[in-house]
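An instance as discussed:

___
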Amino acid sequence: MNWESRLLSEEELNHWYGTESGSDREFEMSSDQANPVATAPGSVPPPKGGTTSELAKALIRQQVATWPMLREAVAGLEEVAFKHFTIKGSDVFAQFNPARIVSTAAKVDAATISQRPCFLCAENLPAEEKGIAFGDRFAILCNPFPVLLDHLVIAAREHTPQAIEGKFGAMLDLAEGLGEDWFVLYNGPRCGASAPDHFHFQACSREGVPLFNDFDFWLERDSKENGFVVSHNYRFNLMACGGADRQQLTDWFARAIAHLAKLTNSEAEPMLNLIVTFERGQWSAFILPRGKHRPACYDAEGDAKLTISPAAIDLAGVVVVPQPDHFARVTAEDLEGIFAEVGLSQDQMNDWLKRIQESEQ
């Protein structure tokens, strides 16, 4: 089955506008901040000529109704358990989500990848899986192993390796198209992408994700330099930039990544995760630089072992822990140590910032 037969038209999705389904729920924080709970707001039909966001939500409804695997996965999100921690003043939620063991424990070495069919190519998708077009190069699909509500995978229609070069503009366009209810993410091929052989973004509902509650606080607290900001004393070292000028953002990103590659002695793409949002006519782009793919506890034995493999969602504050015993014993100290271990040090961040500033003088 090729992409032409996989992609649904707007007309084919008309029936699914304004239809309530298990996917039409948003995370809210309970009063004791112990875990996100689900609410079910009413559904509002979109105007004629659906936006990308409206089409994506219609796709989710259609797929939940027609694809049993996804229906069970979305229903399963209501059963996941959470533990709440505070790390350096920021909320962090450990999520017990056993279905995510497929991604958390994925083998991404070249030998393993070469021996399995690509699960993002059209011909290898489940028969029930459908999508919608995003431009000429991408297909929006539902993620059958969701971490958050409205979890999408945006796959390139051509089988091409996971590499952000030349595609950051498309990430901005996707965030703008999906709008303020969503965030778009990119996991680098060496730090979270379970399909490093096939280029893809992901997108999810932003409700209940701590990073977005934290952002205004530390953006105001930290000094801004040349339109971007570096976090200080945050639970994970990151750099962010915001604005309404697409070209300025793409230029800034290219410079920032080039200097990060030099700083980390990366011949290929430096290790990173990316998050982009769009609201009130402006983008916010977060670069989460990495020093390591997985923490030492991932390969440890006995009680020291924690099957946690951080990617963008984890670093944003929802840490997936698929093993029940690991979930039971994980602590704030464990997570703070993992964040520090897989990220860059403050000295490295300061060096990165200095390199960017000097290049712009």
Residues 19-48, 219-226 have pLDDT under 50 and may be disordered. The chain is about 30% helix and 20% strand. The radius of gyration is 20 Å. The first helix runs from residue 3 to 6.
